[in-house]
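Human: If only I could read backbone structure tokens as easily as an amino acid sequence. Underneath my words sits a plain record pairing an amino acid chain with its backbone structure tokens. Take your time, and here it is.
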Amino acid sequence: MSGSALSKVFYIMHRQVQPCDPFSAAHHPTETSMLGRLSGYPLGLWTCLVLLLALGIGCGKFGKPKDKEEAEKETSIPVELTTLERGAIESVLEASSSLEAEREVKVVARTANRVETLQVEEGDSVVLDDLLVQLQNDVQILQVSKASNQVEEAREEFERQTSLHEQNLVSDQAFSQTKYQLQQLQLNLEDAQRELGYTLIKAPIGGKVTQRLVRVGDQITAGQHLFTIIDFDSIVARLFIPEKELKRIAVDQPVRVRSNAFPDQVFEGYVLRVAPVVESASGMIKVTVGFKDVGPLLPGMYVDADIVTASHEQALLLPKKAIVYDGEQRFVFRLKPDDTVERILLASGLEDADHVQPVAVLEVGDRIVVAGQTGLKDGSQVKALDVGLADEAKVPADEVASPQNPNQS
């Protein structure tokens, strides 16, 4: 409290309180002292005076301006930091698709007859030309026998005609007719043998029988679907990638494939083919992914695939959560020795789900703000809370936040 304020207090107290002794100050002003004058005041006014004096002393003590260091400390913004390190990073293209087999065959009947025996069931593995089913073939066997006898008879006649023709005993025309007749009967024999072969239905490829659509005793017709065989080694994933990414795709690039059916497994694939055309309707290009070992994957499974387009084993790694976006530009805040931050335009190389590879300005050991950067400006004073890059600790939300207004209680 200032001296003028205290003077006013004393003046009010003097004016409002009269001395109670008739022989005191009023009658003997020359003998009046300050101590005698104050002794006539009530106790309540004394109490007020003491409180006012204490308040004034307190205000004088705590009302002094704080030094610059303490003021800056109170206005520092708490942020979470990480130190840049080197590590492996990959650039990937993500896509999803259903698996399918490139070698899938529907086995159909090529002749009409009744099923006599079944040799395989669904799930059985077969190799090329394994017998799947046998049809009744008594009629076909009979036709082959007849055609064979006719060919034998015609061959003997042809040999006799040849001998006579050499002796000029038969005309050229008669000899030619005998020869053509033998050839025709040989064709008939081949046709009968082929029909007999149709009664033995064999596997056209190696693989697994995934469907059996016929039973013993069924009367089947030509063209009827009997079995489905799939070569599981031919399973592929057909991915569709935007045409703008075409320059990043190349044959034999590694592909990581995941399936919800096996969440803990990653299946290694590779780019088998890249389509030579872009689909005009969608602007996408087809990329076929093959597998060296499909493992338990099955046709029809839905999978997620990551095509690894580029990789770097010792890249500088910047967490993506450190990035601040300003329109199309990206920035990060780097801590300076004086506990202020500088705003740096980010130039990036490879990117994955969690990290970016800075290609300029930033270096190993730089301390970068990864939380609390909202509202930061170039030169802002911050309070550092360090967090490792590999195992970033959780910082309480109430510590990493914008500073409170100093005028708020």
About this structure: The chain has four domains: 3-62, 75-84+323-387, 93-102+231-312, 110-230. Residues 75-84+323-387 form a domain with the conserved putative lor/sdh protein from methanococcus maripaludis s2 fold fold (CATH 2.40.420.20).
